[in-house]
Predict the structure.
Amino acid sequence: MRSAQADSAASRGADHWDQMDWPSLHRHVRGLQTRIAKAARDQDWRRVKALQRFLVNSYSAKALAVKRVTGNDGKRTPGVDGEVWTTPGAKWKAIQRLDSRGLRPQPLRRVYIPKRGSTTKKRPLGIPAMIDRAQQALHLQALEPVAETQADPHSYGFRRSRGTHDAINRVFTLLAREGAAPWILEGDIKGCFDHISHGWLKCHVPMDKKVLSAWLKAGFVESGKLFPTTAGTPQGGIASPTLANVALDGLEKALAERFGPTVAALNRSRVRLVRYADDFIITGTSKELLEREVKPLVEAFLAERGLELSPEKTTITHIAEGFDFLGQNVRKYGGKLLIKPSVKNVKAFLTDIRETIRVNLPAKQETLIDLLNPKIRGWANYHRHVVAKETFVWVDHYIWHALWRWARRRHPRKSRRWVRARYFRTQEFRHWVFAARARGYKDEPRTKVLFSAADVRIVRHVGVKSDANPFDPAWDDYFAQRQRTRVLQRLQNRRLLKQLWQQQDGKCLGCGQLIDESDRWHVLPVVPFQAGGTRSPTNLRMLHPTCHRRLRAAAGSLPGCAVLVHRPPSSGASSMLEPDTGPTRTSGS
């Protein structure tokens, strides 16, 4: 009897989850976040606290928190309890479990992942349990409006509608003009996430102190042993980047008060900050100014928060020598500023490409193309806003040589002419194109072609306005237009997707939310192809993966539908049209 009741409850929970009115939930949470941001701008902290409490106890915020942690890349990665929420019933039950009262976060599961740009060094990553991830996502909805309102104007890391391209654009704006500051302090904070003072966070982060303290003191488990945490925020927690941003915000204001109480004074010293997470640069008129005045101020600012600069990575450089920042090299050549992909970034990318080719020696040619195309496209798209065309051509040439060696090793007894005919094609004016014959939908013959980085157009990025706030309704039209421009640029060579996105006004038909370039999306037919449906825009609709699954669970799977799976450019993946014979084969969706 008890088992039957449990099954019935799980079935009801699954039905409830599949029938969620997501547009209504988003509107409710958005309205509360707007009110929190307004109260923060007015410095009405009592009202901020009351609204935050109301938000974290609302059903809408809890549902969206569960949706976030069950729809991201880590949704199938368990914490120390081994629990994951994969079914609609489990997600529905999770909403009921979200409550700050009696909160006791479980220790994080410590794992080590390769450090970016290094093949030998690794960095620790703390994986919270699913319920703790949902708790962090819930309280983050209340913290973000305040953090965004108080953020430094030229901080670009881990903030909504801002990214690395905006940071690079700000660097160009500061240094390209005639008479710009010639000296740059390159700052790097030593173990930023691991050493932030818990005492400072509890005193200054505008959120529930009891909940924050419980997060910070949760500890971590490594090799079966429990270790306490006395400082830092875990790398891997959903709220950790925002907490780190709150700790580092205020540095730009401190520099302005010290070196620019007036516009004239600021123009004389030309001390200005550009920060992305824990990496930053500060410009100045002389090396002595940066060494004797700016650097001590930064060190004192960080010391209050339990942090310090990394002696090995913190340097002062003249613009004529150039410096690397966020994967780009910034340097003036004869007085002209050029930003190019850094040598270190290109080397790391080609090392990854070379390793992918090496370990796939016995793989089919079309399989290797499927592995390489997302990497090449993602890397080229990241650098498409700088002076990168020459680098793109050189990278294509390097990859061609690596593939030629791969093909020759597979057939050591065949002639060069035979290898060329087997693996390379001529397409229009391009010769020696690495391409393979494959089968597409309904076994239709098609050709898979290696993506060429040189085909990516160089487009100047328009930086975000420094005072733009995504939680202020006055900026809604501005951010909507920016998003529209970015997506249309991304889809400029995909006429069908572009037409479909415009037809839906850029919104998912499942939840009504905007489809950003960083989102995943699925495209599926209204009338299944096997039932006579066409691939015209009138028969297609664009949905988020979670919305697609919800609709399919409610209406039943439609065998034989074709689903266009798009992965965001951050992962560097491509789109593909494939038959839908069950759960969509999309990593992390």
Remarks:
- The longest strand covers residues 430-439.
